[in-house]
Design goal:
Radius of gyration: 26 Å
Distance between the termini: 70 Å
Number of domains: 2
Strand content: under 5%
Number of strands: 0
Length: 80
Amino acid sequence: MYWLHSGFGFWPLFPLFWIGLIVWLCRGAGRWFGWRGRRGPFVEANAQEILRQRYARGEIDGTTFDHMRERLQSSDRPHE
């Protein structure tokens, strides 16, 4: 109990508390607004899924579907 009366107290823990609170709030905001999964390989998978849906709805014909699918798949491969 000496450290409580010596003036040392809990002040070193206050920055850790505030840092933890800020990190917790930022993670919560990220989940709330859905900032995860909007970049990277998910974008390419979504593009192919949209193409399949458009073909299934009859918005594009088979030739256009094949052409666009080939273009999407060729964009996945690294260019030499």
